[in-house]
Amino acid sequence: MMIRLLCEEDYPQWLSLWQDYLTFNHQTLALSITQHTWKNLTQSEALKAWGAFSNTGELLAFIHIVKHPHTWSDRHCIYIEDLFVVASARRQGIARQLIETVYAYAKEHQCHRVYWVTGANNIQAQGLYSTLATKMDMIQYRKVVE
């Protein structure tokens, strides 16, 4: 397996996994939003995307991050916004390797911390996450502003 930053040529494979990820999260997005997301992931300094590829070049997983300033440090933070592994490749260490890739990126860029959220019912993922980071007792509130 190989992990690398996603590039323009990866769009068709990423799009397929992105749609599976949205379905997994019971979400739908307009194609224009998906295209805007892809453009940001491949061209923005603040957003990055890595993919995990099989030996045959098949995209098995992706991780998307947002690098941003915050108020508790003079260094940036990294928020893992999306992480998805195709069902057939789960429980093989791919998610762990992707998160560790983000940790290495954060260290290289002298970031203060890496953080993410997951669903309360995503027990399988939480088992992995608990080995990689500290679970916080925070509750997220959200208001969509239209």
Automatic annotation (TrEMBL):
* Keywords of the record: Acyltransferase, Transferase
Q: GO MF terms on file?
A: N-acetyltransferase activity
Q: Which domain of life is it from?
A: Bacteria
Q: Where is the N-acetyltransferase domain?
A: 1-146
Position of the signal peptide:
none
User: Pfam families from the xrefs?
Assistant: Acetyltransf_1
Sorted alphabetically, which PROSITE patterns does this protein's record hold? GNAT (PS51186)
Q: Which CDD domains match?
A: NAT_SF (cd04301)
State the InterPro entries in the record.
Answer: Acyl_CoA_acyltransferase, Diverse_Substrate_AcTransf, GNAT_dom
Q: What is this protein called?
A: GCN5 family acetyltransferase
What is the source species? Answer: Pelistega indica
